[in-house]
Design goal:
Glutaredoxin, Arsenate_reductase, oxidoreductase, Thioredoxin-like_sf, Arsenate_reductase-like, Arsenate reductase family protein, globular
């Protein structure tokens, strides 16, 4: 199990606390320092069953600067979104937990973190 976190994020800290309380075996990836490649982002999206715009923090300053709200959300623009996430990792929703069964969840709630633990 791996968890992508921003240590300044309260949701990330809560997820880590719950994983620790449950005795989970996991690896922490500080994704703002260890930035995921486009291939890693595509792999996580596949595991999540989501599209890149589904995990994009559209209220971030970088998102506004890029004009993401006006970008198409379709197959032809998918790679543009993936590239933006790789180039601007602050835009990636957090925390993302990759479960042992090959799936992943966005662990913003206790329920989502527990879901990852049960997989």
């Amino acid at each position: 199990m791996e968890i992508w976190i921003n240590p300044a994020c309260s949701k990330c800290r809560s997820a880590i606390s719950l994983l620790d309380a449950e005795g989970a075996d996991y690896t922490v990836r500080r994704y703002l320092e260890d930035v995921p490649s486009e291939d890693e982002i595509r792999a996580v999206l596949d595991r999540l069953g989501l599209e890149p715009w589904d995990i994009t923090r559209t209220q971030e300053a970088d998102a506004k600067e890029l004009g993401l709200k006006d970008w198409a959300r379709d197959e032809t623009s998918r790679e543009q979104w993936v590239k933006a996430l790789a180039e601007h990792p602050k835009l990636i929703q957090r925390p993302i937990i990759t479960a042992d069964d090959g799936t992943a969840v966005v662990g913003r709630s206790e329920e989502a973190v527990r879901d990852a633990l049960s997989r």
